[in-house]
Design brief:
globular, 8 helices, binds beta-D-glucopyranose, about 270 residues, Rossmann fold, seven-stranded parallel β-sheet, alpha/beta, about 45% helix
Length: about 270
């Protein structure tokens, strides 16, 4: 696979692209030749900096502010994307938040905020993408599929996570939403898949990855013996979006160094 060209002539919209996995994924999509819509919610500066970096390297990019949990804002996000680049071929529904609390103390607003961004946001963006794929039809150079959707899930779509019930519920929801959508639209040539990252060093888990004692504790849960890098996920997203993955439909690709393999069982059951 020539990573320089696999997405040439395509347009990728990446939500939550001002930091972490989204930022790296947007950059990798651009390196693979796609024009990229860099969606952000509150951090305009890093989003603009990423756009400048992509443009300096000869690519095409645009930053667009939108709260993915807001129906009108998602409509405007796709309008801006189409106005700038004519179409959308790839959606990476990546935006995600954590609002952690033990169940007895979890507020309704902590619950709602996580469900709204992590689950409703993925629904709103996927629905907009499906509508856009249908409206625009196929174009030369935009790949074998009519369109591609990649949901950013988590190992916590299968691993229960005490103290994070809202987050685990949202990711469990993403899994069955993704597979249902994949089943529903595959006949039209729309490929829907997900990536389930494990512990990737980003701002969302800074406490667990930067402090040495927490880091050692975390490493015990990762058979491959290292914390993930955002590029580990970004490369998987480019592959899933490319024609090299054209027969991959309704699958979750775990990019987790083996975190979902019940690591405790290494020491006996
Ligand atoms: C969470 C991280 C966590 C990782 C592994 C991710 O989905 O956002 O905070 O480190 O799962 O537990």
């Amino acid at each position: 696979m020539n990573a320089e060209h696999v997405l040439k002539q395509q347009v990728a919209l990446v939500t939550g692209a001002s930091s972490g996995i989204g930022q790296a994924t947007a950059e990798a999509m651009a390196q693979a030749g796609a024009a990229v819509v860099v969606n952000y919610h509150s951090q305009a500066e890093p989003a603009q900096a990423l756009v400048a970096k992509i443009q300096d390297a000869g690519g095409r990019a645009l930053a667009v502010r939108a709260d993915v949990g807001d129906e009108d804002a998602v409509g405007r996000l796709f309008d801006e994307a189409v106005k700038a680049f004519g179409r959308v071929d790839i959606l990476v529904a990546n935006s995600g938040v954590q609002r952690d609390a033990p169940i007895g103390e979890m507020t309704l607003s902590q619950w709602n905020e996580v469900i709204n961004t992590n689950l409703t946001g993925q629904f709103l963006c996927a629905r907009a993408a499906v509508r856009q794929f249908r409206a625009q039809g196929r174009a030369p150079g935009s790949g074998r599929a009519l369109g591609k959707i990649i949901h950013m899930s988590s190992v916590h779509q299968v691993i229960p996570w005490a103290g994070h019930a809202n987050y685990a519920a949202s990711k469990g929801g993403v899994d069955l939403f993704m597979r249902t959508l994949a089943q529903e639209v595959a006949a039209e040539g729309i490929r829907v898949n997900a990536i389930a990252p494990g512990a990737i060093a980003t701002a969302i888990n800074q406490d667990a990855t930067e402090d040495e004692a927490s880091r050692q504790k975390l490493l015990k849960m990762i058979p491959y013996g290292r914390v993930g890098d955002v590029k580990d996920v970004a490369h998987a997203a480019v592959w899933l979006a490319s024609d090299a993955a054209d027969y991959v439909v309704g699958t979750t690709l775990f990019v987790d160094g083996g975190m979902s393999l019940y690591p405790e069982f290494r020491f006996g059951g």
